[in-house]
């Protein structure tokens, strides 16, 4: 049991850069990305239930979106094109699987079964796994859209169009519904802007902190600690009264008003 090592893995997520090789206007990291995916998963869960009357395990969807990329603390940032390269794709997947299992092993035995599903099985071939994968793509689409609106970098303009076509090709109705609503640039579009822009809200501004921090990375840490401690309360101490999904959803979105 190395619970401290697990929580350190959560903290290290903010040191894994995303898109850095393309010099984005807005800096990104695995922590902020996982926060955005978790926030989007809350929306997708509601859409599945309320719009399409599809029962779904919303806690599983949210937990997988939140912790599914913890393996990146071991692999670092790997380009998407590299991950899909036929010569190395299987080797990378095997390496990521072993890293994910190692991260799960840091936890108390009582927490490992749940964490294994959230971390190792995050993007399996189940309906929820396919949603997690599509939400990951949706967040990349949102990031590239923001870049294309605020900068002239041709990479992000092209990537935004490429990712939109990829999303349009999905068979997942909730993803298509959210994409259609987003493209109306009203209503849900405005709400999603609060999620995307939370990484522009700096924390400890005016202090001499050595590590830059923002409310997106903060929200990821808070949500991760909420999930960890909620599982500990339920599995280790037998506190079955906790509504873990409500706790986790509130922790994920608690700072959203600060982006206004």
Low-pLDDT windows of residues: none
According to CATH, the fold-level topology is Hypothetical protein af1432
For the record, the CATH class is Mainly Alpha
Give the overall shape, derived from the CA principal axes. globular
The radius of gyration computed from the alpha-carbon positions, rounded to a whole number of angstroms, is 18 Å
Structural class: mainly alpha
In quaternary terms, these chains amount to single chain
How many discrete domains? 1
Topology as H/E string? HEEHHHHHHHHHHHH
Provide the spatial order of strands within the biggest beta sheet.
Answer: 1-2
Q: Identify the CATH homologous superfamily.
A: Hypothetical protein af1432
Number of helices: 13
Number of strands: 2
Description:
With 260 residues, this protein is mainly alpha-helical. It has one domain (3-259): Hypothetical protein af1432 (Orthogonal Bundle). It has 13 helices and two strands. The chain has helices at 3-12, 30-50, 58-67, 72-75, 80-83, 89-105, 109-119, 127-150, 154-168, 173-182, 188-196, 215-236, 244-253, and strands at 17-18, 28-29. The chain has a two-stranded antiparallel ribbon. Helix 3 (58-67) packs across helix 8 (127-150), helix 3 (58-67) crosses helix 13 and helix 8 packs antiparallel against helix 9.
